Structure formats: C-alpha cells, structure tokens
Amino acid sequence: MCGICGILSYGEQKVTEEYVLKMRDTMFHRGPDDAGIYISTEGKIGLGSRRLSIIDLSPNGRMPMPNEDRSIWIVYNGEIYNFKELRRELEAKNHVFCSNTDTEVVLHLYEEEGIDCVKLLNGQFAFAIWNETENLLFLARDRLGIKPLYYYFDGKRFLFASELKAIVKDPTVPRKIDLGALNAYLTYQYVPSPQTIFRGIRKLPPGFTLTLKDGRINLKEYWRISISPNILHSENEYAEKLIILLRNSIKKRLVSDVPLGVFLSGGPDSSAIAALMTAVSGEPINTFSVGFEEGEFNESIFAEFLARSLKSNHHTFVIRPELARDLIPKLAYQFDEPLGDQALLPTYYMAREAKKFVTVCLSGEGGDECFGGYDRYDLGISRNRLVKIVNFYSHFITGTDINSKIQSALSPKADEYVKTLCSFPKEEKDQVLSEAVKEELKNDGSAYYHLERYLSTKLDFLTRLQYLDIKTYLPDNLLVKVDKASMLASLEVRVPFLDHHLIEFALNIPWNLRVKGGIKKWIFRKAMSGIVPYANLWRSKMGFSMPLKYWFRKDLDKYAWEVLLDKKIKQSGLFSMPYLTGLLQKNWSCDSAHGLKIWTLLFFAQWYHCYL
User: Fold this and answer.
1) Cα 505 to chain centroid, rounded
2) Which residue is catalytic, options 2, 5, 370, 422?
C-alpha cells in the first residue's frame, strides 16, 4: 500500500518539488519503506508517492514509475489480485517488465487498453496516470471504495492525494467547512461522497474514473453491481458456490512477500475468514483481537475460543479509557474528516499492535452488507413479506394501479433508514446547531439526496437497503475507518468479502435465502456450518463499540468538557453552546445512545482543533 499525491498546473505558477514533498511526506505513515517524486521538465505536473512494500520489496518497485519512453507515469496505491494473469497476457503482446510489481502491470495495461484498463482489474486500488503525449491526467478508484482518493480544482491547479490532509497542506487551498457536509455528519456520523467536510475538496466515488484534459474534468462510472435475482439453484448449490467464491477470494489475498494475519472479532464474518485462511494456508495463522475490561463490551472471549479451535497464534489487546484519551487527538488528525464511528479507536489500536507481528491483515468488512446482517434490514424484510401477500391477493383486487400504489407506499423511506444510523433525531439536530447555521441550511436537502437515489430503484426492498449500504455506509464509514486506522499503523488491510465477483453473487441470491425464518445471513451461516464453530457462527451480532456510557461518566468526563466547551468551538459559531453544556451535564446518567452523541460531537470538536 502507498500514499500518492500530485499537482497539475494550468496557470503560470509552476509545480515545485517543495510543494509536492510537503504533500507526500504528510502521508509518511502510508509508506515508510520508500518514497519518490517526479516533476516534469516544464513544471506542469508533479507526482509523489510513499511506499509500503508488500510485493517485490526491491527498489524496482519505486514510484512514480514511468513506461519505457518515460511518456507515461503512474503513482499507485493498492493491490491487484489478478496481476499475474494480466502480466502474462501483456507479455504475450510484447510488453517488457522491469519489476515484479502490480504497479507496472497497471501501467502497461493502460498502454494497451487506455482508461478501460480499470474494468480488467480485480483488487483494491486508487491510482493516477499522467500521459505526457496526450496531456491527460487519469485517476481511478476501485469498485467498492476500499482505497481513498481526494481531489481539488480551482481552474488553475488540480491537486489529488490519498489523504485530504495532503491537499490542505497547500496554503492556497481554503479550509472552509461545508455546512451541508456538517449537517450530513450529524445525520449519518460520516460525510457522504462526493462531499468532504471542506468546501471545494471532493472524493472520487467508488467505481469511478476521472480524466482531466485541457482544464476539463470528466467523471465516468465504470462499474455498477448487476442485480437480477432469480432462483437458479437450490439452497445447497448457493451455499456451495458461496464457499468456493469466498475461499478463492481469500486465497488471492494471501499473495504477499511479507507476513499476514487476521483481525478476529469472533463473529461469523471474521471467524469464517480465519477458518478458511487456515485451511488454505495449511498452517497456523496470526490472529488479533481487542477487548475491554467492561464485560458487556468485551468480544475477545469469542475470538479466543475460535483461536483455540484453529490453533492460531493469537494476540488479545485490552483498551482502557486512559489509552482512548491519549489516542483521540492523534486519530482526529489522521482521519482527515470527522467520523462518528467509535470503532475507529479499537481498529487503530489493534492495527498498531498487529503491526509488531505482521504487515498485512485480512478483515471482515462487507459481510453484513453482502448477506443481510444488520437489524435495519428488518425494514426491507417485513415489506418484502407484505408484498408477497399483496401479490397473492392482487388477483382479487380491481384497478390496474392499486398494486403499484401499495408497493410504493410500502417502500422504505430515507428518514426510516436514517433513524437506524443517526446519533441525533431530526428534531434534536435542530437543537445542536446554532441559529446562524440552521438559517443557512434551511433549504439544504443534500443530506438525504444520495439515499433517495438508491431507495427508488426497482429492486426488492431488502436488496435496496443492502445496495444502499454498499454504495454509502460501507465506503464512506467502514472502509474509511479501516483504511485510515490501519495506514496510520503502516499496516495493509485486505477485505475478502469485497471481491466484486462475490458481491455480485451475494446480491443475486434470492432475498428469502439471505434471510430465512427470521435468521439474518441464513445462506452464509448455512455455507459456513462445519467450517466455523457453532458458538461463533450463530452468535448474535454485538458490534465493535466502546464502553462510552461508562467512560463519559468518569474517566473521559473532564476531557469531554475541555474539548467541547473550548473557546475555539464557541467562536466557530457552529453549535448551540447551551445544548452542549446540557449534554455534558447529563453524563452522570449516560447510556449508550447518550455516549454516542457525546462521542460524535467530541470527535468533530477534536478534528476542528486539528484543522482549523
């Protein structure tokens, strides 16, 4: 994995090595093993890269990497799992390679296929290619958004980077909060793509490419999940196919020249990955988990049970409130934008400690989105069942449009979905924000727009919600959390459930096999029966959360007061200070919901201190 960045100038100001180095080395943690820089002769473009060496540890993999005649340059972050097959095809077409890296494969593939090269890649990636001959900059991001890519364009200079902090390192880029993004953050606990918390800086959406030529940006979606569920197989056949796809996905993600491990929560997803990885590798694996002294939040006992079953080299790390206090400021800076997912802290701590033993870890993100594991999917499941009833009785109903009206009325609404994510109900959010901010946001409807796009499809209601999560919650929350936390520890994380072949297969399994008899992830659990111990496979979903309701009553109480009521937060004019004071005064009766509200605002306030 790597950190990449670049500047393309359309004005009189030339790109200098100084600016590119500042951007690049802001991301030292993403690539401590090597670094490179390229500045074109006329100073039109500069590219920078920090490298975490995973495949081909030799200097031959150094970036920015040119083609043979140095007319095309690439900076690349990611792993391409089918790069060996692609390389053989390219060699058959007389392409000559100087390294064993997947980076060079992408470069030659672009020479052969142009911007359509992304359609042939299987992996997690974000890269930029500068074509000197065509005077064209080409950016691409993987299908699911596993790897991040930010950009900024003011008409004269185009900047891009793996992390937003590298872009705002340039003093000409304004640091102005996008109030619509703040509104969205309080709604979802994350900032949805393509917005960022800063006005004018954008995220390249998952599955998209960006070309910049003659000062004109062109965004193009190159992949969309193809969903047309049909009962093509028996339940057993679906389960057998699922095992084959997941095992192959894991096998591809074990290609590495450095040690590997697994993030193990002890739930069904991570347990399945650990069990299949053990079977594929044929030897004991490294497994890692975190725990808390507060028993009701401690999942590590389930991880330790599975580790004993697999005979893995297991490590458990315990998080205490004083550690959390020390890490929050560091994480607020690292995450570039406010993120209300409290699991970011244990994810980072586990990554930091795992890095002492391995350089790559596999993780279970995507399992719930693939196979229907969240409680909020009850919104879709119940409506699907009602539709079946409506369809049965439709033969007795007169009027051609009655059935469609009933189905439209049953469709999950954005506000119902939001309630399952939101720290603040809509009416309470009005109390959080200052009067000035509310006035500016009174006509802002952007917070819900991206939801309606996916909820209005013609898919069944469960699949709509899963598809919505795959397009929004997964890349903008979960994968941001994993990428930023792991890369701060200079650890690469790979996510087998997010192989796009597996995703497409999973969403085309009939919905009543994904959830059956009230049991979520039914087909997945059936497939893993006999592979994963019963206690891990059939346990209730616990979630990766911290004991905030205890910590904010005592250990983190003073810290929360200091950060949230700091004079800089008051001067920002963003929040109602009486509301913040009242929220903190209720710490003594703090429950999980109250703790999450404090955390969401606390992390924003700490981020604000770092960046503004």
Assistant:
1) 21
2) 2
